[in-house]
Amino acid sequence: MLKGKSALITGSTSGIGLGIARALAGQGCNIMLNGLGDAGKIETTRRGLETGFGVTARFHGADMTRPEEIAALVESTAAGFGGVDILVNCAGIQHTAPVEEFSPERWDAIIAVNLTSGFHTIHHALPYMRRGCWGRIINIASVHGLVASANKAAYVTAKHGLVGLTKVVALETAGSGITSNAICPGWTRTELIEPQIAARANTLGVDLEAGGRSMLAEKQPSQQFVTIEQLGQLALFLCSSGADQITGTAVPVDGGWTAQ
Asked: Any idea which residues carry the catalytic annotation?
């Protein structure tokens, strides 16, 4: 049922965003990529989606801290694909420090990328979804949208805000054919948490794998990392007709983290 639909996925040149892009492309969605990285690698990724799945894939390098560039990203998606059917807000950055040591500049950047950019993408994409009487908004909000951890003031604040935004949009679009949901992953082995694993390993004087196991032992009862593929499959379900009445939810995929 997704064949020919268009999906805009921010933060999709690597990690969870790219995994979701691949899952959607596998069901026939045309894909607008957005994110950071080496231009040559991004082009290889874009071509790989086209040749691997027989869809059209494009890339737009909008800076998620600049509202005017976000507006241009949404407009470019609509112009290229005839609309915006699926929006996945996955762009994210991280920084850890105690509140009294947290740089205001870092705070502002994390709030801008992890929360405010989601408002801007939804603001511009919703009119296209309303025209088609169908749409899917998926915000990648993290388990830290539901619970807190020390030294992550900006990240936790942004992700809690993204869950709140998800719920408001769900209420405002209820019954319209548009749904708004958040996916809240626990520890997922991506580029975003590698520095945290390295820091943990350095503190304990162990290798990276042992550092990762230590992180899992502290928070995630399953003792296993969430996989990017699992998150892609959940995103597919939320885009399916089986999820027509699932809206305003924050779905934890956390190996039991938030059950404690």
From this structure: 155
How far from the centroid of its chain's Cα atoms is residue 86's Cα?
12
- Boundaries of every domain in the chain: 6-186+227-248, 190-225
CATH 3.40.50.720 is the classification of domain 6-186+227-248: yes
- For residue 70, the model assigns a pLDDT of 98
Q: What confidence tens digit (pLDDT) does each residue in 36-82 have?
A: 999 999 999 999 999 999 999 999 999 999 999 999 999 999 999 99
The whole-angstrom separation of Cα 121 and Cα 187 is 26
pTM: 0.95
The residue length of the chain stands at 260
State which amino acid sits at residue 197. I
Q: Is the pLDDT of residue 198 over 90?
A: yes
Find, among 110, 67, 66, 89, the residue nearest to 9 by Cα.
89
Q: State the Cα–Cα distance between residues 223 and 231, nearest whole angstrom.
A: 17
Handedness of CA 20, 25, 27, 29 (dihedral sign): positive
